[in-house]
Amino acid sequence: MKKNRNFISLSSINSQNIFIRLCVIENLCYLCSLIHTYINIRLSVNILKSLLFKNFINNRRFLPSFFTRDFLLSVVLCLYVASLYFSNGIIVYATILLSLVGVTVIVYRVVCGKQKLSRPHSLVYYWFAVYLVRVVWILFSNDPQYGLRWMGTSLPFLFLPLLLQYLLLNERILKTVLTFFVHFTLLFCVIGLLSMVYHSFTVPIAIKEWVLHPKSYYPFVYAWSNYDHPSVLCVIYLLALPVGLYLKRKYRTVSIAELTALIAVETAMLIFTGARVGMIIFPLLLLWMLFYRISLKRKVMVIGLPVALAGVMVIGLLGWDNQFTDRFKDPIRIQLWETAIASIKERPLLGTGTGGMKAVCTSPELTVKLNYPEPLSFNNPHNQYLGEIMHFGFIGATALSGTLIYLLILAFRKKDFLLQSLLLILFIQMFTEMPFDSHKGIYSYLFFISLFVVSFSLRADTGSKTQ
Q: Which of 150, 306, 440, 441 could serve as 263's disulfide partner, Cβ 3.0–4.6 Å?
């Protein structure tokens, strides 16, 4: 394994020469996708005309000024969405840019436009309560220094939902950002697969090895993007599926061909990166999308093929080799979960305090007590349900649990397909990860939840007006 890691690092350096060019091309595609959303053309049909700017000239009346509020906010929000696929440092820079532009727009509206700020949305208060627990519980922490770092990671709970509310984003910006998200996800997955193909020839690696031993090779897929956690990345690109279906139905900015291509490349990404939580979410998400289409009395042709592909994938892989089923056996997580349960029994009400989970998960004493050979070097138990109680006790865990229950009630009361799909992904991922205690999870889920709930009241199923 050590040899593989060293070789992967060397190969990643060598691959930068060719894939840096792909990154430049991809960035040009980002801009084309953004222009595409404004001139209202279908990329899958008119891509050659778009590159020749024929549609740009013919439809220039639909283009806004490059210095209007809508265009500026659309660009900044699209850059933020793109950053979610890359390293935590890039996400932080994108968040700072979004905050600076957002605060400037809000101040200008209040000072020059003499508009009053509305009362914060109820969800803003829920997120504030979640962060307040993290601040107060540092008093009970056995590692306050590490707890301060945890508080810094959780800062978006304070400002991101509020920022998106006061930006007063309209339906046009929503359509632009979500369409960009779907197109960018498609490009991201395609480049990841190209990276895999490139390394397959240069290493070389047999296709069967990619499938049966993805833990040894998945960094090759993400060698160009500088972030290679498949379980974290898969939940982001899987969210693009329901978003694409929503856009296909409501705005026609995503075609059936693009949706089918997206499902195909995401299927390949799940296979070759070995994202186990993604393999669980993927078929359930397709069934949920199918149910959504049937409930609307629409044709289900766009979903029938993906479901068939998913079935073939699962059946084929199960019959290919017994090693596939062994992939879902995870003794490390079982040890972490048992450690969390033991910690909860010792401190059920207040937990370990903010940042105290790391010391417990790596505790030699608790490892011996649970009859395990050696402690693990993990900062959390990789389970949000257990980790939240372990971290903040049953008292502190009520903040996050109350927020999630509120979102669940809101999603089904308003028949919000996007929020329902996001919560389906979130609740499954919370069994194997702690998304609300990591950079990627906090910045991703807070943004999309705030976008679906706080920023907009216009929904595909309610037909209500924009706030």
A: 306
